[in-house]
Specification:
The structure is a single chain. The chain has 9 helices and 37 strands. It has an 8-stranded mixed β-sheet with strand order 6-5-9-3-2-11-14-13. An 8-stranded mixed β-sheet has the order 26-27-25-24-31-35-34-33. Strands 1, 10, 12, 15 and 16 form a 5-stranded antiparallel β-sheet that branches. α5 links the parallel β17 and β18. The protein is about 15% helix and about 40% strand. The protein is mainly β. The longest helix is centred in the middle third of the chain and has 15 residues.
């Protein structure tokens, strides 16, 4: 639940003074144009002086109620890095089956500059507006405001008309530049009940009240008709929203962007049964299986009979069958880099073409596993880039993986990426929980966070020369997600380019006799590297004494957590153990003068720990260092503990072993 710390349901009813009328397009002053830096964030390249939004309903006889979403924005450019804000893009949905596609129109797009003490106004012309089709679901409109320079103020307005009343577009209130003021007003007929969701923990004030409203429309006889009703007006208002800035160890910045969201819960039209849109997960499962691009595609097992018979000849063990099928699908199929829970061309054509989207490839895997007598079901997932499905929703998932069950043991699979293995998924899939769905409408929450630690184990035999130089042999073993991450990062690199980067990372080592096992095959096994090394300058010599870092060339010198405060959770991705064992032979004629004290650091909840131990036997020193991170994500409230933990660990790594002449 740590990821929900920045999410809350809106609480309505607090009293505010509405100030929206003070913020209007076209009201630009000389003092605003003269302003050189943002008054509260001097580093800001630009700032949103205000963002105003309004959602209200219209009506016509053909579609009934529809929604209008209006947005007005005023931006000040302070630095050349802020000039990119002259380009504004808004996406809108066109992929409905039963609704007309959304429509988006820009207007009032103007640039203001100060020239010779006068305000000069430049309007957007037709050449500055573009429309692009992203895919069959989305289009995008772009405007490029004219004559934008450092010091400019730009303004624009757009109206999005949509028949989709189930979910409104998010009203974002936080960006990578400051927002001085925001104001959002919804005017919703009493027939529609929405659940407001506030994300990002941005302070705001709200007020709701009932007001009277009416709609006029042309009836079937081309006569003007009208009706009256009550509507719920809600205001959201806030100011001085800081820029959303990237922080180290963050999964997806978008998960924490301040925004106001609205999700339809129920519709209660006069003289009609109430329609409940507040879904259960069972409802999601039942609905998705009715879709031809989902449920029907999971009933194609007979398609693969001939190929399976060849693949599984004389193979009876289910685990072996699973591994053969999984490897076969990964090798045969090529992912087109499209994420989806639904097929586009279907599993039959995808199999023939040997290419497909996520759903097509993993549905082929499910069909083949089922045909081989293995229970397999789809697991709906939201990737890190897609955000979190906070509550039951049909639209919150954008990815699907496979859960296979053999003898009571569950195995998670994804055949879209060539380097995955059993229970090792792409890193962007490790996003809290998935939802296993079955044809009978049942569903089950699936934990995606790996239960076991991934390990990096370094073992080095090191010889220190009297001149401080070092040489020796090394073995590095990586397991599970550390092995997968290594493969993904280095699979396309040549050995020479990888070694050059590795040598530089370790302070200029020279590596030779390099060998690697299981990098591109045996993906369920550890990646193992062995090599010899030589270092010219990894020890200091002062007054005839040799000063050695306990972690040699793996010593950390900078704390990655150097901010005073932390806004977002700290994301490590998966549980990890990093262990170093150094067996160091000291030069002949030298002895140990002093050693750092052994170190043991642990957080109160034991989620993080570090040990550093030393032992001496004749002319050999054994050094053991082990760091464990036993949680994939920590709340922002834990930031102080994490910062202190890393600082103590780094200090201990930089204390010296001192060798002196006998």
């Amino acid at each position: 639940m740590l990821r929900f710390l920045l999410i809350c349901t809106a609480l309505l009813g607090s009293t505010i003074t509405i100030q929206a009328q003070k913020y209007e397009l076209g009201k630009v002053t000389i003092s605003e144009l003269n302003e050189k830096v943002h008054p509260k964030d001097s580093s800001a390249p630009a700032a949103i002086l205000f963002k105003k939004g309004r959602t209200y309903f219209g009506y016509n006889k053909d579609v009934g109620f529809y929604a209008n979403h209006v947005c007005e924005v005023k931006i000040k450019i302070y630095k050349k890095e802020g000039l990119s804000w002259a380009d504004q893009k808004v996406r809108f949905y066109i992929g409905y089956e039963k609704l007309n596609e959304d429509r988006l129109e820009f207007s009032d797009a103007v640039t203001y500059n100060l020239e010779n003490g006068n305000i000069v106004k430049t309007k957007l012309n037709n050449q500055g507006e573009f429309k692009t089709k992203i895919n069959k679901y989305w289009k995008e409109k772009t405007i490029t405001l004219p004559n934008v320079k450092v010091g400019s103020i730009i303004e624009y307005k757009y109206v999005l008309k949509s028949e989709n009343l189930i979910k409104f577009p998010d009203f974002d209130i936080q960006f990578d530049i400051p927002v001085d003021y925001f104001y959002y007003k919804t005017q919703i007929p009493e027939f529609f009940i929405y659940k407001p969701i506030l994300i990002g923990g941005i302070p705001l004030t709200t007020e709701s009240k009932f007001t009277s409203a009416s709609q006029s429309f042309d009836n079937a006889y081309s006569q003007t008709s009208s009706f009256s009703y009550k509507q719920i007006e809600t205001f959201y208002e806030g100011k001085d929203v800081p820029a959303l800035k990237e922080e180290p160890y963050i999964n997806n910045l978008e998960n924490y962007r301040g925004s106001i969201q609205q999700e339809l819960e129920r519709v209660r039209m006069p003289d009609q049964p109430v329609k409940d849109y507040s879904l259960t997960w069972e409802g999601v499962a039942q609905t998705i299986f009715k879709d031809e691009s989902f449920g029907k595609q999971l009933n194609e097992a007979s398609l693969f009979t001939d190929d399976l018979n060849k693949l599984l000849t004389n193979v009876e063990d289910k685990n072996e069958r699973l591994n053969l099928i999984f490897t076969y699908v990964k090798n045969r199929m090529n992912w087109n880099e499209i994420n989806s829970c639904h097929t586009e061309k279907g599993v039959v054509k995808a199999y023939k073409d040997q290419t497909g989207n996520v759903a097509e490839i993993n549905f082929i895997l499910i069909n083949m596993l089922r045909a081989a007598g293995i229970e397999a079901n789809p697991v709906l997932v939201s990737t890190i880039q897609n955000g979190l499905p906070v509550y039951p929703t049909r639209t919150g998932f954008n990815y699907v993986i496979v859960a296979a069950d053999i003898d009571g043991k569950r195995i998670l699979l994804d055949a879209t990426h060539k380097l995955t293995s059993s229970n090792i998924l792409p890193l962007n899939v490790l996003n809290w929980k998935g939802r296993l769905v079955k044809k009978d409408g049942s569903s089950q929450e699936i934990e995606l966070d790996p239960a076991s630690q991934s390990k990096e184990i370094y073992t080095l035999m090191v010889k220190v020369d009297p001149d401080g130089k070092m040489n020796g042999q090394a073995r590095v073993q990586r397991t599970d997600y550390d092995a997968y991450s290594f493969r993904e990062e280095n699979n396309a690199k040549t050995e020479d380019s990888y070694l050059e980067k590795f040598e530089n990372k370790l302070g200029g080592l020279t590596i030779s006799n390099y060998k690697i096992e299981n990098q591109k095959s045996n993906l369920d096994q550890s990646v193992i590297e062995t090599f010899t090394f030589a270092s010219d300058s990894r020890s200091d010599i002062i007054n005839g004494k040799i000063f050695v870092n306990p972690l040699l060339f793996f010593t950390q010198t900078k704390n990655p957590f150097n901010q005073e405060n932390r806004v977002m959770p700290v994301y490590f991705g998966y549980k990890n153990l990093e262990r170093f064992t150094f067996n160091v032979e000291i030069p002949q004629g030298y002895t140990v003068e002093s050693m750092p004290k052994p170190v043991k650091i642990s957080s109160e909840d034991k989620k993080m720990s570090f040990i550093l131990n030393f032992s001496v036997s004749e002319n050999k020193i054994q050094i053991i260092s082990q760091k464990e991170i036993n949680n994939s994500i920590f709340a922002a409230e834990d930031y102080g503990m994490i910062k202190e933990f890393f600082q103590k660990m780094i200090v201990s790594q930089n204390e010296k072993i001192v060798l002196k002449k006998i």
